[in-house]
């Protein structure tokens, strides 16, 4: 389900860096090869029953993925072909433009609160920048997953398209964005996003320590274990 494991995040960052360094590559479309799911978000197994060192390494990789994607010089388009909770939603939010399949069965949102987890400040900042303060506040407190029509109404996704038109639309949007001179677009993007990026860079170690102390609490570990058991039951 494209869950963001440590290996997945590491590979994602390496691939993104290679593309950033390739002068011939000016834009990237992110989508999933798995039907009905864009990304299920952070891999819960990385946050359950592991060492403090592992939690630190994992969280640093999550930060790195966001810093690279949100701050990318390339045009980034999310072609969201299925549900996208939590970290999956963050990946989409970090792109310049989001197109989602027009299917009310699919949903997207930062639903961390449902697992007893708090979305970090930089998740929140990214969300607020897209949907505005009030919608973000309600959505984060309730851990809401928004069905596609609602997500579109809130501006969480920019466009809804039929499933068979998703790739075609993503390519058309990319062409539209790439028609502009790169330097002007890049400087504008940096101006719009720099304060949010700088805030994490300045507080990166503190954010890692906050994550470790929070995730290693027995009450949080217990709720994560319960959630994993529920997932196992669903699968079986």
Automatic annotation (TrEMBL):
Q: What class of enzyme is it?
A: isomerase
Location in the cell reads: Mitochondrion matrix
Tell me the InterPro entries matching this sequence: ClpP/crotonase-like_dom_sf, Enoyl-CoA_hyd/isom_CS, Enoyl-CoA_hydra/iso
Question: So what EC number does this one have?
Answer: 5.3.3.8
Q: What is its main location?
A: mitochondrion
Is Isomerase found in the keyword set? Answer: yes
Q: Which PROSITE patterns match?
A: ENOYL_COA_HYDRATASE
Q: Which UniProt keywords apply?
A: Acetylation, Fatty acid metabolism, Isomerase, Lipid metabolism, Mitochondrion, Transit peptide
**Catalytic reactions on record:** (2E)-tetradecenoyl-CoA = (3Z)-tetradecenoyl-CoA; (3Z)-octenoyl-CoA = (2E)-octenoyl-CoA; (3Z)-hexenoyl-CoA = (2E)-hexenoyl-CoA; a (3E)-enoyl-CoA = a 4-saturated (2E)-enoyl-CoA
* GO cellular component terms, semicolon-separated: mitochondrial matrix
Annotated metabolic or biological route of this protein: Lipid metabolism; fatty acid beta-oxidation
Functional summary from the UniProt entry: Key enzyme of fatty acid beta-oxidation. Able to isomerize both 3-cis (3Z) and 3-trans (3E) double bonds into the 2-trans (2E) form in a range of enoyl-CoA species, with a preference for (3Z)-enoyl-CoAs over (3E)-enoyl-CoAs. The catalytic efficiency of this enzyme is not affected by the fatty acyl chain length.
Give the family this protein belongs to, as stated in its UniProt record.
Belongs to the enoyl-CoA hydratase/isomerase family.
Q: Describe the protein's quaternary organization and the partners it interacts with.
A: Homotrimer.
Name under which the protein is recorded: Enoyl-CoA delta isomerase 1, mitochondrial
Its source organism is Aptenodytes patagonicus (King penguin)
Tell me the organism's taxonomic lineage.
Eukaryota, Metazoa, Chordata, Craniata, Vertebrata
């Amino acid at each position: 389900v494209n869950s963001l494991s440590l290996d997945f995040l590491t590979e994602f960052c390496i691939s993104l860096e290679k593309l950033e360094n390739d002068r011939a590559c000016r834009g990237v479309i992110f989508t999933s090869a798995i039907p009905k799911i864009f990304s299920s978000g952070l891999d819960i197994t990385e946050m359950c029953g592991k060492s403090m060192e592992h939690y630190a390494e994992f969280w640093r990789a999550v930060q790195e993925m966001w810093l690279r994607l949100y701050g990318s010089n390339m045009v980034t388009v999310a072609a969201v072909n299925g549900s996208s909770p939590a970290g999956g939603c963050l990946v989409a939010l970090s792109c310049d433009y989001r197109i989602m399949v027009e299917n009310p069965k699919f949903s997207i949102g930062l639903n961390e609160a449902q697992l007893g987890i708090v979305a970090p400040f930089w998740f929140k900042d990214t969300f607020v920048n897209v949907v505005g303060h009030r919608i973000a506040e309600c959505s984060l407190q309730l851990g809401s997953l928004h069905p596609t029509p609602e997500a579109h109404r809130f501006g969480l996704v920019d466009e809804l398209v039929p499933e068979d038109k998703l790739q075609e639309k993503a390519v058309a949007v990319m062409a539209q964005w790439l028609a502009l001179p790169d330097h002007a677009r890049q400087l504008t993007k940096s101006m719009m996003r720099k304060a949010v990026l700088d805030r994490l860079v300045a507080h990166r170690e503190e954010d890692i320590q906050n994550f470790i102390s929070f995730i290693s609490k027995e009450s949080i570990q217990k709720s994560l274990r319960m959630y994993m058991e529920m997932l196992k039951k669903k699968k079986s």
